Amino acid sequence: MSQPRQSRALIIVNTDFCSSDGDVGLRPRRGARREAEKLSRVLAQLSYRVKLLHNRTAKEMEDLYQQECSREHGDYFVSVISSHGEEGAVLGCDCRPLRLTRIFHIVSAQNCPALAERPKVFFIQERRGGGGGGLFGNTLAGSEPRSTLQIRED
């Protein structure tokens, strides 16, 4: 008897940032690695197959979502990105932005049949350059976010 397919979770946590010339671009995100590891354990306890990755460039993050389109998925797909960011984008460890709309386009039903008809939940925890960060949650239906919840730091 075959086992049911496991739902997948992709967690990307960027803690160290450098510009293309190797200079330190943004402050390190202390504690983010520990938080991501705790979240990974919780999702694993909920029977998700978790892929936890650290310090990925914008291009590498984009490629990871492309790769998810060729994987077998269970009932749900959960994605967590913890990084520095800017309006509508998260930063790779190379300080280059990856637009959230690009991620949503990659995993849309049209471009990613493996995830068609499956709920896709995105949690984006970003710290913006000058001030507070926030936690943004999106559920995705079709190619656009259906709902967005924004939680600001105190």
UniProtKB/TrEMBL annotation:
Source species: Gallus gallus (Chicken)
InterPro entries, per database record: Caspase-like_dom_sf, Pept_C14, Pept_C14_caspase, Pept_C14_p20, Pept_C14A
GO molecular function: cysteine-type endopeptidase activity
Protein name (Swiss-Prot/TrEMBL): Caspase 14, apoptosis-related cysteine peptidase
Record PANTHER family: CASPASE (PTHR10454), CASPASE FAMILY P20 DOMAIN-CONTAINING PROTEIN (PTHR10454:SF199)
Gene3D superfamilies: 3.40.50.1460
Family membership noted in the UniProt record: Belongs to the peptidase C14A family.
GO biological process: proteolysis
Positions of the UniProt region annotated as Disordered: 134-154
